[in-house]
Hints:
Layout: H1 29-38, H2 46-60, H3 64-67, H4 82-90, E1 96-99, H5 105-112, E2 120-124, H6 127-137, E3 146-149, E4 168-170, H7 180-193, E5 201-209, E6 213-216, E7 224-227, H8 230-244, E8 248-256, E9 265-267, E10 272-274, E11 278-287
Parallel strand pairs: 1-2, 1-4, 2-3, 4-5
Antiparallel strand pairs: 5-11, 6-7, 8-11, 9-10
Helix pairs in contact: 2-6, 7-8
Amino acid sequence: xxxxxxxxxxxxxxxxxxxxxxxxxxxxxxxxxxxxxxxxxxxxxxxxxxxxxxxxxxxxxxxxxxxxxxxxxxxxxxxxxxxxxxxxxxxxxxxxxxxxxxxxxxxxxxxxxxxxxxxxxxxxxxxxxxxxxxxxxxxxxxxxxxxxxxxxxxxxxxxxxxxxxxxxxxxxxxxxxxxxxxxxxxxxxxxxxxxxxxxxxxxxxxxxxxxxxxxxxxxxxxxxxxxxxxxxxxxxxxxxxxxxxxxxxxxxxxxxxxxxxxxxxxxxxxxxxxxxxxxxxxxxxxxxx
Length: 289
């Protein structure tokens, strides 16, 4: 029996998989504005440019967010707290870190909206994606963001230079890559990175579920991913707070997962999860003590 496209592992770079869009992207007005006005890309070249960047990134590593053009969402601008983030960073007195930044696309949105780039940092496991970001946004000679290639689980990585120095961290589509125990380790690292004061803020969005639990995911076949709902996400941060002697106000919003192609079943750890159960988890985690 022939296997379905969804059975292919991500690392194969097979373009027949269902997470590689066969047609060009529908670039949102917000993203188009950044590409045309910030990057100075001619309007009739935007789609072609995005296609070329996507295919080059696919060869670096074919993540589903690459194949489906999710990197064009500029998702930070969709967060309920975005106006607060911009207001705080525009002062030039606060620092921002995008954890798992990919191309650094959300940083470009912030810079376009008036945030000083010298106070922004991006981190990812692969420097190649961050380097490609310069070509996506054509700002190699102007952007002052510091990009750091480092493993969030390695306390000796270059990320350690930011311990206790960051005011706002974004971690979108990041926590959901790991099982719950590893997510807790990431959360502990976030606590170390943020300034030890009230108002330090973690924001982001990730794939969750109305039925929280661990599921097998195709980007990392060696591990399960834990998908949260609002209750389980708050429980995680209660545990982290107790373990670190800190306290956090956690806000969570569940939204329908757009653009998934309708209900379908995903392979999971001994069970099937229907796509109707999947949600976007939009969150903010604010230090209160």
